[in-house]
Amino acid sequence: MSEKKRIVVGLSGGVDSAVSAWLLKKQGHEVVGIFMKNWEDDDNDEYCSTKQDFIDAAAVADVIGIELEHVNFANDYKDRVFAEFLHEYKAGRTPNPDVLCNAEIKFKAFLDHAMRLGAEKIATGHYARVRGVLGAYQLLKGLDPNKDQSYFLHRLSQAQLSKTIFPIGEIHKTEIRKMALEIGLPNAKKKDSTGICFIGERPFREFLNKYIDSQPGPIKDDKGRVIGEHMGLSFYTLGQRQGLKIGGLKDPGAQRGGGDHEPWFVAKKDVPTKTLFVVRGHNHPWLYSNSLRAINTSWVDPMGMNELGGELGAKTRYRQADAKCSAMLDKLDEITVQFDQPQWAVTPGQSLVLYDGEVCLGGAIIESSTPI
Q: What is the pTM of this model?
């Protein structure tokens, strides 16, 4: 990109966005930083790092030599992201707030604000790439396979991608850390953020309990026996192993094979009866699915639907290796995916994301799966 542009960068206080801003400034662009505040409910909470993040972002902007504006999108976040987040949990599903947060805040509210500031492009510190092909835009995986974040960006539209730059998409994380140290960025050694998008890393069950009432119900095993009580289906996800509080129970029917020593995993939720089903062992058949149905499809390029006839790769969760599959559009907004190999803990509410090699085609929200 040789043309000099006015580019607004989302500075989070982390090292990835900091290096992104530095790279663009080094290329001669007019760079402006924006720090987004998107959560206010417990801003003085020990788990909310907004104040420190802003201090870090301001220090980075000072070192790089760019302006930094503080913008509050808390109302947008609560209305567009958090309300849907709670709705999904109350329905017994497990949503991915980062996906919705990118589509509604980072690449909508933030993009709109940047355009009002006269930006020609926006940039973020995501590990992904954008490629222009015949007048359209493709979303590509980041070149660092351990950090690729295209999964979280699959709901971006052509209009959003046309205005977006990912400066570090072709760089590995280890190199980003080295660059930050060499540049002298104050946050070069800051650990990566985790937890809920913009809310931070905190005891999740305790946090969710502030917004969702507990509705206890029975915990049953695969033989239908009641072996405990859960505090509410919203607080558990498929494949979960920790926090079940049934670890000491024995399974008399499995002792000969040593099955009584294997850990319990959440395998199913029956919302009408408020029943949580658990099974012993990571390889229990109830944890594997041959196919799934997903709804609310979103295509990076509407022409991506044309790729559904061939073999594709799919992720049903972040950091998962692409699973070979075939996909079929049932209706305009629904898709069925058949996997070559059974997939573990396919979870309703999570995102199914489809790939043709390095190209992210789009995705949908997992509604149900078919066990092996």
A: 0.91
Residues forming a β-bridge with 133: 136
197 is catalytic: yes
Give the homologous superfamily in CATH for domain 286-371: Translation factors (2.40.30.10)
**Residue type for position 223:** K
Q: 48, 101, 325, 360: which one is catalytic? A: 101
Q: Where are the domains of the chain?
A: 6-204, 213-282, 286-371
Cα radius of gyration rounded to whole Å, the chain: 22
What is the DSSP secondary-structure string of 107-167? IIIHHHHHHHTT-SEEE---SEEEEEETTEEEEEE-S-TTT--GGGGTT--HHHHHTEE-T
- 48 belongs to the catalytic site: no
- Topology given in CATH for the domain delimited by 6-204: Rossmann fold (3.40.50)
In angstroms, the CA 313 to CA 343 distance is: 12
- Topology at the third CATH level for domain 213-282: SH3 type barrels. (2.30.30)
List, for residues 262-305, the tens digit of each pLDDT value. Answer: 999 999 999 999 999 999 999 999 999 999 999 999 999 887 77
